[in-house]
């Protein structure tokens, strides 16, 4: 940056202790929340360290020097290249991408409904994806890869039904939550019925997929997810400021010039697509979408898609490492998130009860 583009920090008494604006003399400006920026930086560093650990640890341990050489394209041997680039790196990146998608989707749902218990799991979008995948695998006799398409279609269909049923209320909290819970119950009833009508072997395969797993995920699974995420991210950046204002209430948002109805629809579309991408890639992994936004918000003290995405990526990566190495036999990552997320959900309910008491 040249001297003529020296950033100018806006006076603190104008923006408050946490809000800052960087401006250049050419007219470019960037407003940021100081605490959020610090937290995002720390989370990004922690995620990078976790990724390094995921690449090094396992039955075949890779030394730091061998890892650096492999990532530079100068692997010391074929076995190291296979484990690092062929198995661990794509699996870790898939975990991070899926975790980020679920976490941001959860942050959007909780912001739209202004309900800390709302998430794609609760409002039925994930259940819709499960129905789509099960129908493809067990009724249409499709493959697991084809089930991913069914999952995406199922998530979109359930979201569309929610929109139709809550059209007049404008997607406000209580009605959206109750509609989503009802659709989720219906969806899981369909899944249970289909599972009860097929052979045990087929039902077992479908049930394993329904838990959510990263087993066998490769570059072919990662690239479509990254492309979808890259297409959705500009919409999230565009509407992130509106989402923060809407979290304060529609009255304040409208007073500040936010077109709340349009913003709410666009954010719902983005959240649905993120869930569809995540479920299509790794199955309906539970509780990441619920837990990650809470952890991110407790750290930043303000809604932040970036912090939620990083926390979600870390949660699923850690869950996958625990599922791989903490038990005598590897487990699906979804089994770990269900166990940990269930405990967090109970704690959240207890805290909400004390807050309302």
Automatic annotation (TrEMBL):
The keyword tRNA-binding does not apply. The chain crosses the membrane at residues 38-68, 89-110, 122-140, 147-167, 173-195, 265-292, 304-327, 333-350. It comes from the Bacteria. The keyword Transport applies. GO terms for biological process: siderophore-iron import into cell. GO terms for cellular component: plasma membrane. It is a multi-pass membrane protein. Keywords: Cell membrane, Membrane, Transmembrane, Transmembrane helix, Transport. Pfam families: FecCD. InterPro entries: ABC_BtuC-like, ABC_transptr_permease_BtuC. It is found in: Cell membrane. GO terms for molecular function: transmembrane transporter activity. Belongs to the binding-protein-dependent transport system permease family. FecCD subfamily. This is ABC transporter permease.
